[in-house]
Amino acid sequence: MSDIRKQAYKAKEASRNLACLSTAVKDAALEAMAAALEENIDQILKENGKDVEAAAAAGRPKALIDRLMLNQERIKSMAEGLRQIRALADPVGEIVSGWTRPNGLEISQRRVPLGVVGIIYEARPNVTADAAGLCIKTANAVVLKGGSEAINSNQAIVDILCKAAYGAGIPEGAIQFISSTDRSSVIELIGLNGIVDVVIPRGGAGLIKAVVENAKVPVIETGVGNCHVYIDGECDFQMALDIIVNAKTQRPGVCNAAETLLIDRRIAGKLLPLIAEKLQKHGVELRGDEESRQILKDITPAVEEDWYTEYLDLIMAVKVVDGVDEAIAHITKYGTGHSEAIVTANYHNGRKFIREVDAAAVYLNASTRFTDGFEYGFGAEIGISTQKLHARGPMGLKELTTIKYVVTGNGHVR
Amino acid sequence: MSDIRKQAYKAKEASRNLACLSTAVKDAALEAMAAALEENIDQILKENGKDVEAAAAAGRPKALIDRLMLNQERIKSMAEGLRQIRALADPVGEIVSGWTRPNGLEISQRRVPLGVVGIIYEARPNVTADAAGLCIKTANAVVLKGGSEAINSNQAIVDILCKAAYGAGIPEGAIQFISSTDRSSVIELIGLNGIVDVVIPRGGAGLIKAVVENAKVPVIETGVGNCHVYIDGECDFQMALDIIVNAKTQRPGVCNAAETLLIDRRIAGKLLPLIAEKLQKHGVELRGDEESRQILKDITPAVEEDWYTEYLDLIMAVKVVDGVDEAIAHITKYGTGHSEAIVTANYHNGRKFIREVDAAAVYLNASTRFTDGFEYGFGAEIGISTQKLHARGPMGLKELTTIKYVVTGNGHVR
Known about the structure:
The structure is a homodimer. Chain A is globular. Chain A contains 15 helices and 16 strands. In chain A, strand 9, helix 12 (290-295) and strand 10 (300-301) form a beta-alpha-beta unit. A seven-stranded parallel β-sheet of chain A has the order 10-9-11-8-7-12-13. Chain A has a four-stranded parallel β-sheet with strand order 5-4-3-6, sandwiched between helices. By secondary structure, chain A is α/β, with parallel strands linked by helices. At the A-B interface, helix 10, helix 15, strand 13 and strand 16 of A face helix 10, helix 15, strand 13 and strand 16 of B.
């Protein structure tokens, strides 16, 4: 048996006892894990230094090194994250629904852990603590596979978390870390049907695509967001300005940032110059269709590829459309089903947009940037699902659980 | 573009209009589809005759031919099935939950169709009408891929259903049927990520395994059930007898039938002979472990493979265990997570079994045969999910839907 299969089996075994733990034990473990991170800041920083040095020596991009690098504050915030998870309500054991059949059979749906959750992520060591914490809270065993650039940091964090968790009553083996940096280890992990109950890839489009296409275990696809803001002909100009600037510039590198502005022909001549001025002040490069370039003379022409692109950068595509129908048609063609917004004062157009746009989250007079577990009030987030099975949109603790039917009778037979 | 991809695209396009149809239109279409089946019995029987003849000439098993063969009554019951689906409540549009955030943002989860559902099934022509009906009711477009043995029957049924549905206002293209009998067409269908939202295989273990292992689109795994009944030391003997006989013999060929009997050592000497007598009267062959064979002298020895086997036949494995803990350990090792039952009068053992057995449905003093959408009161069943994502256990209409978040604000930004 390969090492990865062995690890997954250990996780499976641990998951059985984990599923029956009380909330008190899980919460005590989360506190112990948080405290252990704080007590071992020096050790984590030492190991993280090795990773950062190696990445710099290899000439990796600055953004990657920034995500990779830890400092005292970042480690403290990882510990704080674990304490926040501890403070949330335990979803396990909830009776989701229940009823009695005419024959007297009593049926209930109870919320239970998924079992073994695989998390595949890139060079963000904070995901290690975050994912372990979310899984412990929901009584799932976890198999972590982090990016090779963060291998020393992740190994140090996992060792510290495991020692603290197991010392506090979590069954040994519940947190597994794949230390092989070989890409084939990912392929093996996502092929462990019947052992691993779900894999969640967290990272860039390439990683997610590779996992979705090669997995034999169920996958929750997360992340890619080619989000649009449509500004309808009847709208409050100031509201439109505020929302478009926020959706594009407040944090351009994340999946719920807007990438394309669609604007109704009826107001484009008047409003588009104001929007362009604001966005350009924020350093946004605009790429326009022909009609918008007649209004904004000096912007780059948009090519077909622009409409498909998730820039994750201070770039925005602009298109003038003939009202809400053309806006919806554009979103249907080019959108990724993440977050889509309309700004309008017209009841019917708002209602139409909400009904007809097929996305995880549809916004009426609010920024797409709200698609986030914390903003929705979940107190935690595992990722944002852009597929339709099991979870759609921001995933909180509940999305790391499943149900089982409990049926009680008095000798009932068919 | 290949034919199958074209068909899936047509389904996707139709799905957008379908999603916005009122319940009244969908229900009228279901009635029209039912009536059309009844009006075209002769044509369906003629086409079905070709399939049955070909299967007989090819020497296919009698059980397959029985599943394949239609008659007046079976077609009427397909029509009746569509009318039953029509009578169910429409799940689409339900506000599943909703709340207002401290900042005034209003968030709601609305139930919406999945989009395009692929159904891959074997030589049961009734699944064609059933799957089409369930998808129309839930406003999903459907791509049907039936077994090659039923190709003429399925094509006739689909033609009749499409004509009726489109005539009643369902968008053209919403029901697609893959007429190629080539196996590669299945591979292509389950690779259409981004077009097909979910594939549900309905059939034997081989089909399901092939789909799960090769799919790039999300799959809901259904079906395989190696189910156990554990008879605890403290139990009502008559109840134990009734449940075990029902679970094994009432319909042995289905996934929720019991395959292994586990019996507590404390009562095995007394109760096992009574059970064996009853089961043998029903024609059940028993295969026992050593201890049970000391009690029931004349039964076949069970080998390791027996504990893993879903017989789907009048065969039952028997094992004497040392109480509820050993029963749970056996189920954990050999079960497929479908349906598991305990018969006990002891509160603590019942509670333990319910908590610790990891299965879609756990029964306390009731037969495993109840794991069924109709028995649970759903009024319909797409299949029984044995995996943990999206749906677990019997799947009704709700399981053919997903949610979208609708977020309304008043110019809210982050």
